[in-house]
Design a protein that fits this description.
Chains A, B: Keywords: Methyltransferase, Transferase. Two copies of one chain form a homodimer. The first copy, chain A, is of the alpha/beta class. The first copy, chain A, has helices spanning about 25, 30-35, 60-75, 85-95, 110-115, 160-175, 195-205, 220-230, 235-240, 255-270, 290-310, 335-355, 370-385, 405-425, 430-435, 435-440, 450-460, 475-480, 485-500, 505-520, and strands at about 45-50, 80, 95-100, 100-105, 120, 130-135, 135-140, 150, 155-160, 210, 245-250, 255, 270-280, 315-320, 320-325, 330-335, 355-360, 390, 400, 405. Chain A has two domains: about 15-55 and about 115-420, Trimethylamine methyltransferase-like (TIM Barrel); about 435-460, no CATH class.
Amino acid sequence: MDTIDPQIPEETAGEPAAGRRTRGVAGAAGRRAARSGGGPGLSQPFIMRKLGVYEVLDEEGLQLIERNADKILEEIGIEFRDDAEALRLWKDAGADVRGERVHFPVGLCRELLKTAPEVFTQHARNPARSVQIGGKATVFAPVYGPPFVRDLEGVRRYATIEDFRNFVKLTYMAPSLHHSGGTVCEPVDVPVNKRHLDMVYSHMKYSDKPFMGSVTAPERAEDTIEMCKILFGAEFVDQNCVTLNLINANSPMVFDETMLGALKVYARNNQACVVSPFILAGAMSPVTVAGTLTQILAEVLAGASFTQLIRPGAPVLFGTFAASISMQSGAPTFGTPEPSLVSYGAAQLARRLKIPFRTGGSLCGSKVPDAQAAHESAATLNMTLLAGTNFALHSAGWLEGGLVSSYEKFMIDVDQLGMQQRFAEGVDLSETGQALDAIAEVGPGSHYLGCAHTQANFQTAFYRSSLADNNSYEQWLAEGEKRIEDRARVLCQSWLDSYQGPELDPAIDEALLAYIASRKDSMPDAFT
Amino acid sequence: MDTIDPQIPEETAGEPAAGRRTRGVAGAAGRRAARSGGGPGLSQPFIMRKLGVYEVLDEEGLQLIERNADKILEEIGIEFRDDAEALRLWKDAGADVRGERVHFPVGLCRELLKTAPEVFTQHARNPARSVQIGGKATVFAPVYGPPFVRDLEGVRRYATIEDFRNFVKLTYMAPSLHHSGGTVCEPVDVPVNKRHLDMVYSHMKYSDKPFMGSVTAPERAEDTIEMCKILFGAEFVDQNCVTLNLINANSPMVFDETMLGALKVYARNNQACVVSPFILAGAMSPVTVAGTLTQILAEVLAGASFTQLIRPGAPVLFGTFAASISMQSGAPTFGTPEPSLVSYGAAQLARRLKIPFRTGGSLCGSKVPDAQAAHESAATLNMTLLAGTNFALHSAGWLEGGLVSSYEKFMIDVDQLGMQQRFAEGVDLSETGQALDAIAEVGPGSHYLGCAHTQANFQTAFYRSSLADNNSYEQWLAEGEKRIEDRARVLCQSWLDSYQGPELDPAIDEALLAYIASRKDSMPDAFT
């Protein structure tokens, strides 16, 4: 268990990351780099919240849900499908295994979870970008999973590996995204059995932020580990977390072979698993908040504690993906009150388990980055920070229920993430913050625009949005009545045009490319 | 000091209010109506928060700001301009008055404020719509003040009295707006010295929700009181709050003749004043959160305690309008982190003063209801509820920094207010909420769509947005790729088309119209 002391040089807080990289540090290979301190001129690599959390359940409510979850674990049980090893491990650990259904004696999962770290570091190849997972830290990562993009021409189409690289580059440049994420979009132009190699390589090559591994098959998880060993060194990987990996439960109450296979690879290699019930309430869980929370807790207890059966001490997160379905159409809905209540409650349950928590992001169901998209995203994102979320996937670019990675929405979200980061710094109560000298200088009936305190502090006083238009109506008219997505498109293109990647040791780069080539040669292309 | 027990019949929670009015109750005159209980079939008239508040300052920080505010009050002082009566009252109360500058001995304002109620009722002519101001109650009111509208043809133009009536009607029909507000737009087609009569009448005639009075001149405040006496009866008005009135401080540290004149009329008549520093931080206050909070507290202490010099026991609110200015262009900005921190902190200061608190709403700087408008509004609105705000002006329809009342944005905001109201209900921990029977019935690997618990509860399970599109992409395409503002426009027109007003006793209506006619006849038209 270790923590990081974030560095926040004010003067660079508003600049894209590309302008701030320190070539010397970024160019060093992972092994060495990951041990040294942060470099100069780097913005805060993650949020350390100075404010408290918001909670929606009292002690009595929390205990009720915990008791009910224990009842589910013991009486109903959780299925571990098509995985004889998992069943054997659970039997050996003292669970009552009937077929593929595992029934857990009260307290077994909690006891196992005691070996999981409350806080840990996920290392980036640039150590200044390593992130703390857990405690008061909040880490924002981009959207995960969409097969489509809405591109800079406004066309909705299948995503490609070029889109994938673009989102990695944009994430690298965005100061408010602390993590490169994983499947920022699904590059469907690359064979399905090979694309994980290109995806992992893109995160390693085009960014120096921490990233996620492949979970779609155990051998793809193994490939991720092998590539991490090339980048960071085998011994470093075995002793440190260098990938975070999304392990979804098949709610209700099932873990399948694929996810268990990936989980086992990562846990065995001391890498972090985010055990996440993927909940569309009303379909995968009851239509109530408390019922959904109970099921989520049971599923996480089973899945997260399983990582400790594989390797005690392996980092694991309490994950929650919460949405509802429309009871009229069956469509998923986002940013509504009930999933917010679920996530706030789940954060509380995670803190009591003393493992880091993942939820939220900038979720929405809208097809375009309009006010619906923004309201739904804002409702999710405000909750994400106030709940005390440690790792927030889908924080930028998510559109259309996660079917689409949107360039425009990505830029709009990144701006909002910056506001969350500023908010989390709380209230400055220093003498400068108190500003009594300014109030005395200005006095009744005057204004503060020119006073000494304003002159000295206005540069860093207020968060400066990169996209909001606050000009006069007349000026806005003269500039063509642009909407925020129009401005986002222009800014996005300018970021992509000005992208300069972090250096990567040519020997490591070569070794990675050789590994990928050899792995690709070993398999025929598969597209389904 | 009294409170109201809100009634929430589930079956009507999603319907516009017009379908739910009870003619008998609504038709009764104010005097009688204001004393009886709520009628059947009425939705909750305001929010009673079952969840806690979010706070950004600790005890030490609060005391620091309070000490600094006391220092401002004593050493710098607050100006009460062009009002000899105010200066005399302050002198008699023990303040040190030098010219128009009033210096307050430490503790004087707090001592005076002890006679102000912590919680009170603002009565509506339909008692089922009376609202609690203070405590755990949150009351949403529409936008206040814009001279322009963005109409249903998408045209931005000066507002008219017809627009005014439309917004009163829409507010009447919106279940999540608990209050009719005040200047929902500025009807510039009516002479400036007469329009307050038409505005107050519109609130009385086209709605039966509580409303705000005119504050633009003392005689217009007197007209408001006279019209209230016709509607509610003179004795009832003297003993109860029937109007809420917006008294802005001229920050920094000035109260002017106009606002003091209106304040005195309302306080003398036992009506509520919302003493609100109108702050664009960086111009009217220091560029820091703590400095802004300090000045706000000083201004509110001076202005709010002044109401108690006029009439001890008169209801008064701690108001805060917080925005920042762009230090580059000087333009106001909304929905950014710093004003949120200011408002959260101000709510805490208000609770310590034991008077109700007003802030927030759905503020934005955008010219159109796009994602900028939504993000800025959401940031403001989420804070509004979580801060524990008691009265939230500008909750629906605010666009372009308050220059425009937007029909489309109004409908989008109303939908979001409904979500806030649902969120504030918190987590149902009843047996139905726990849903253990559902989890047992469904079991691992199945789904909840058809289970008995879902069938019994799905109707009320999730907040149902009136505007979000969650259909498939293909269906959305087929329906013409509509954005949320397109759907809002259609819904708005259908509300206006189906509006049915609450009945108003014809004798009262006639008396109101006669009063208005006589007052209008007594003055020449003025347009500036």
